[in-house]
Amino acid sequence: MKKDLTSEIKTELKERLHDKDLKLTHPREVIAEKILSAKAGEHFSADELWEKLRKTAKGVSKATVYRTLNLLVEKKIVEEHDFGKGQKYYERMVERPHHDHLICVQCGRIVEFENAEIERLQEVIARESGFKLSYHSHKLFGACPRCRSRRQA
Amino acid sequence: MKKDLTSEIKTELKERLHDKDLKLTHPREVIAEKILSAKAGEHFSADELWEKLRKTAKGVSKATVYRTLNLLVEKKIVEEHDFGKGQKYYERMVERPHHDHLICVQCGRIVEFENAEIERLQEVIARESGFKLSYHSHKLFGACPRCRSRRQA
DNA sequence: GTCGATGCAAACGATTTGCAGTGGA
DNA sequence: TCCACTGCAAATCGTTTGCATCGAC
After folding, report:
1. What CA–CA distance (Å, rounded) separates B48 from B67?
2. Which residue, A13, A48, B65, B99, has most beta carbons within 10 Å?
3. A123 to chain B, minimum CA–CA distance in Å?
4. Which distant-in-sequence residues (6+ apart) come within 8 Å of A96 by Cβ?
5. CA distance A7 to A10
6. Residues of B in contact with A147 (CB under 8 A)
């Protein structure tokens, strides 16, 4: 199982990197494995990822973590988010449908949402202004159910 | 005209600041004047604002510009935006209806939009997840009409 | 007179970069 | 072999902060 996933990743990565004269190095392999084996919808910062990798026998430098993350964002393997916490957060996008986020301003919890009607309206809005959309960022900030009830208590 | 605006600002500011034991100092006055006299929908960085103020007889320190901007954001007099340009941008919100933004990824031009249906749907989404919304950020990135035609040429 | 506000310069912190050495293809 | 990649440390850069002084109320 693990073995399959790993070799799948390698093949996938090699393919995606190869046509741009990019090499599949050990650090990239280790980073990609860690990211792709994370559970869906998990958001992590570059530093958090680095911390996780540091514990592994073969550590990876922080600079390489940043460089590789930027590479993976470019390759659409991960997505970059700014939740207003002063640092960027990342999320794997392989085999994940597009979605946007609800963010709790009190505890930081993040919930995903997707709404076809909003997606459609965005296209309408863009068309009206003559824009050709390439991507969007839609974040709703507020208090999550847990924090709301805690506050009432 | 100018005189009226100025005293109006002073009164307004004094009012808004007073109940929190905040003082209406000269730097705050100068900064507020500059911001409120800017044309609607103008986006500026802290540094740009500071540059403008520097030319004035009475300069203001950059630290104070930052501190005052944060104060004005808190007081809902200006709004803070992150357009992914590596620095924060501000926009006066006094006498301005809520709106979101279309951002050109090529030239950086910003166009406003507002859509009641999307606003409504956001509330529906929040309700479904049990969130109580306090604010949101909705940004559409793409190529503006100008850049699209330039690219075709 | 008080205490909040200011200016200055130093501190911060996430991210990037220069460079010499390393290792995929 | 060749050139992209890596690790390390230093550099960046927008923003914040410590502290002595200043000034609004």
Report:
1. 15
2. B65
3. 9
4. A40, A41
5. 5
6. none
> Is the CB of residue A104 less than 8 Å away from at least one CB of chain B?
yes
The domain defined by B1-96 folds into: Arc Repressor Mutant, subunit A (1.10.10)
Q: Residues spanned by CATH 1.10.10.10 within chain A?
A: 1-96
pTM, full prediction: 0.90
Nearest CA among B98, B89, B92, B91 for reference residue B5: B92
Query: What are A26-57's pLDDT values in tens digits?
Result: 999 999 989 988 888 899 999 999 999 998 86
Distance CA A84 to C1' C20 in A:
37
Tell me the sheet residues that pair with A79.
A91
Token pair for residue A67? 């460089």
Q: Which nucleotides of C are covered by protein (CB under 7 A)?
A: 4-9, 13-18, 23-25
3-state secondary structure of A50: helix
* CB-to-strand D contacts below 7 angstroms: A 21-23, 25, 27-28, 59-64, 67-68; B 14, 23-26, 45-47, 62-63, 66-67, 70, 86-88
User: According to CATH, where is 3.30.1490.190 located in chain A?
Assistant: 97-153
Place of tokens 């357009």: B83
Which tens digit of pLDDT belongs to each residue from B72-118? 999 888 999 999 999 999 999 988 899 999 999 999 999 999 999 99
Q: What is the CATH number of domain A97-153?
A: 3.30.1490.190
Report the DSSP pairing between strands B100-104 and B110-113.
antiparallel
